[in-house]
Amino acid sequence: MGAQEDVFAPGGGPAVKVSVSLRAGNLRAVKERVGARGVSSYIDAAVERQIERDLLEEALRVNEVASGPIPQALRDEAAELFRSVKSSPELQEEEDGWRGHRAG
Length: 104
Hints:
By secondary structure, the protein is mostly helical. It has helices spanning 3-6, 24-34, 39-67, 72-86, 89-100. The protein has one domain (21-100). It is built from 5 helices and no strands. 1% of the residues are buried. It comes from Actinomadura alba. This is Ribbon-helix-helix protein, copG family.
């Protein structure tokens, strides 16, 4: 990694051109959602979300070492809350709006 990438936190800094390989089906699905001109932005956002998830997972592991495992009842409650939020009509409208967007 060059010095330019080291200076910026995830989600920050200017765009840097890189070459990546994607499975053909994934690339097709991205292009269907955002058009050929939106591929870089879509992939950049996906990478940022994955970094956030990785950091959250690491923080959860550290917390479990310090405080013990999360009780199953709380895990179940969190899973149910996630399912209810994910299936909410407001979220569905937002997802449908995003799916319907196609860059020219």
